[in-house]
Amino acid sequence: MSIQTIAHPVSPTVPGVAPVIVVDGLTKAYGDRQVLDGLSFSVAPQEIFGILGPNGVGKTTAVETIQGLRSRDGGGVGVLGLDPARQRAKLRYLVGSQLQTTALPERLRVGEALKLFTRLAGDVVDWRQLRDEWDLARIERSAFGSLSGGERQRLFIALALVNRPQLVFLDELTQGLDPAARRDTWRLIQRIRDEGATVVIVSHYMDEVEHLCDRVGVLHEGRLTACDTPQNLIAAAGGSVRTRFSAGDLDLTSLERLPFVDEVSRPGGLVEVKGDASTPVLVAAELARNGVIPADFTVVRPSLEDVFVTLTSGAAS
């Protein structure tokens, strides 16, 4: 089964509940370069939706056009029942968007930024409440320029929520963060959804999208080449589960006879058995039956990265 045959650009429907975002045939060009070419998808309430793609394919352009920050050449866009091209003023009170890393003065203090942005949003929420909710009290008097990457991202999330938005856009939020800070940020994103908002994430980190998103759309050549849950995309992509181990001069014949095994090889001194999801258990049982104790027994399963490479290399059918 090809990846595209199970692609679901339309969000799961709930009777009586309208999608938060509907994009239908969106087009956008810069001169002779067609950046978005018939982009279509929808996002359900309280969904974490990921837009995944290589750098330069139009992910940020898509998100900014959906927010009404850029004009569209063609197609339709609806966000919370509004047209962002004509009703941007109304929409800005319903949508939150993260700042870029250079958007704040280096000397601006965290507390000052919170006060300023909550005031600009009409004091929908008390800035002190945001400070406490997002664990910013200890750095309240710190200048923006002195913050670590993780602290900056925590502040950016708080500033994106000054209007208590129903929809939040996060564009490459964890870029440049160390692994610990990235995982802390993931927890913050999940918390936004748990508190009732819909979240759209733009990222090129496969593990991030696979971990966080209810559904993900892969953007390539101006449109979504696939859109589904990470698990369904991985399953549709096929690909073998690879079981690897070292076992000296083991005769591979018995492994080749196991059901659902596609290939047995010995690359670089390791035995590698390719098969389906049941193969690792069958291999382990066969080794035990023959009294073989393997070393370095590892299982490599297909991932979203495999899907991404297939789709963006033009190899998808």
| Rg | 24 Å
Number of domains: 2
Task: Provide the CATH superfamily of the largest domain.
Answer: P-loop containing nucleotide triphosphate hydrolases
Cα(first) to Cα(last) distance is 9 Å
Shape: globular
Q: Fraction of residues in helices?
A: 25-40%
Tell me, rounded to a whole number, the average pLDDT.
89
Structural commentary:
This protein is α/β, with parallel strands linked by helices and 317 residues long. It has two domains: 21-235, Rossmann fold; 238-302, 2-Layer Sandwich (Alpha-Beta Plaits), CATH 3.30.70.980. It has eleven helices and 13 strands. It has helices at residues 59-66, 88-91, 110-120, 127-133, 149-160, 179-194, 206-212, 230-237, 253-256, 279-289, 304-312; strands spanning 21-30, 33-43, 48-52, 74-79, 95-97, 167-171, 198-203, 215-220, 223-228, 241-246, 261-265, 271-275, 295-300. It has a six-stranded mixed beta sheet, sandwiched between helices. α8 (230-237) packs across α11. The chain is globular, with a radius of gyration of 24 Å. The N and C termini lie close together (9 Å).
Features:
317 residues, Rossmann fold, 2 domains, 6-stranded mixed sheet, 4-stranded antiparallel sheet, disordered N terminus
Produce the secondary structure layout.
Blueprint: E1 21-30, E2 33-43, E3 48-52, H1 59-66, E4 74-79, H2 88-91, E5 95-97, H3 110-120, H4 127-133, H5 149-160, E6 167-171, H6 179-194, E7 198-203, H7 206-212, E8 215-220, E9 223-228, H8 230-237, E10 241-246, H9 253-256, E11 261-265, E12 271-275, H10 279-289, E13 295-300, H11 304-312
Short structural description:
This protein has 317 residues and is α/β, with parallel strands linked by helices.
